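so i finally got all the pieces together for this one. its two components total, 586 residues if u count the protein bits. some of the lines might not be protein, just check the labels. i wanna see the whole assembly predicted at once instead of chain by chain like last time, that was a mess tbh
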Amino acid sequence: MWGNNWNWSEALTQFQMRLGAPEGAARLVAYGLGAVVLVTIALTLVLFLIWVTRKVVSRIQDRLGPNRLGPYGLFQSVADALKLLTKEDITPRNADVISYNLAPVFDVFGVFLTLTVVAWAPGLIGADLNIGVPFLVALGAIGIMSALMAGWSSSNKYALLSGFRVVAQLLSYEIPMVLSMFLPVLLIGSMKLGTISASQSLYLFGFNLGLGWTVFIMPAAALIYFISALAEAEQTPFDLLEAESELIAGFHIEYSGMKFAMFFLAQFMNSFFLGAIAVMLFFGGYQGPFVDQLPILGAFYLLIKAMLVYLVTQWIKGTFPRLRVDQMMQFAWKVLVPLVLALVLWQMIVMKIFSSSWMQDVSILIGNLVVGGVVLNVISNYLRRQKVVTKRAFEPKSLIGVMEPVVSSGD
Amino acid sequence: MSLPEMSALFPTLQEVIFVLFALLIAVTSLIAAMAPNLFHNALGLVATLFGIAGIYFMLEAEFVGVSQILVYIGAIATLITFAIMLTRGMMFGRTSAMNRQGLAGAIISGLFFVVLLGIVFQVPWPNVVADITDGEALIANLGALFVSTYLLPFELLALLLLVALTGALLLARDR
């Protein structure tokens, strides 16, 4: 039953037709069931993700985190969700009612659509679209529009400023993200996420180790994707949209109760599923040992890998300071965009020159190592320079009259 | 009445979806043209573009549909909205959709509608379904055509974008 070309929607349709249902209705029910299951899984996942975030961040900050409700405080998110449901729903008097109410709906809608193309296991993918990767990119447009609508319709200056920042940040980081997403597409020659996941297998004596991950030959592309995805998901070094000290809560400042919860939900799901996309493109998707023998293991591998990526983002959240707006924009346009363009160009030339696949792989790896080195060098140089600047800022220059950096006290 | 005759009375699912999309496009483009608030005009434009993308998806031109969303909504509509948000006076005030050229505009658009009607009914539209290669081969063909048959227009478009980019840099430069 679970052969090479097994497909969940076909199997479900066939099953209903054997029970005597007409084909159209059976197909409708099959897809409807699939959608309901996916959305339910996603919503349950979010409750868990919130708990993970709170636990990880509190461990980093030397706290215990939620520990009262259920084992290890697991049910704390359920209580929070119930509390949000019972909160008063406030609409500002000057708000533009239609766009104010539509914005959170669109935000969640855009993120839920990502679920369509997540390849959980061989044959277990909502819809393996021919245009899987560009589809994911296009969904980002919905997120931008909903943030703009929320920022404008709240008729609040902080929300409006945050709306401007959303456009600047998301549009800038979309470019390196899209280009780095297309590097594995270029190598594998398919935009279907199912095919991309399937082709990252590695056969050793006829046994699928499932370790032919593209990250092994394009680490720099994975790094650039990860940085841009952090910015797209509004995660910590780039969480300028809700910088409390500057903008209070960002574009959703005027939202309360369930509408606020929807923005919250969309943000958590977005950061998790951008990680899942990274896993599908660079970390082998559902590939792993014994996937050929037991395909449902693929969903387990995918979730484990995506959760590890999510943990890394939470680790960054707990440790990194926030960037300034100009630093964020400069990093996108002066570092990431030229480097990812160089990567694309290098990979196209290499794939045209060498016909043997291992020569291609080795040359792509060399190009990636060079670019990855440049990215890391830029970041570390920047951090070193920042340290000097901060120390100078604390020096009482006007009293002494010299401008020398303070000698490091051995830290 | 036999069963095929009965079913001919009901619209197919595709027709229903087409009518829904067409209604969406019609209503939202009216909003884009007529609504008294400039931001609502922009949102109406976005919804119109979404509806057109939906029509593309229905015609199984998925790549065109996604490009439509990516380019028109992701970039152009967002920039239009952004420009409107920057002009604060226009943002919350009510602007009239009409000006003194209303009558001339109505006449011109009426004439244009007549011309369009003539084209729709006079042109012998090819009713042959071409041999459509499905799936990914379609997109691969598109890419191959861009760098072979349509290389010159493609490169000219790239040049145009480069000129626009340089011009924007020149205008925004600190002097």
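Chain A has a mean pLDDT of 81.
Chain A has two domains: 1-86, 90-322.
anyway lmk what u think
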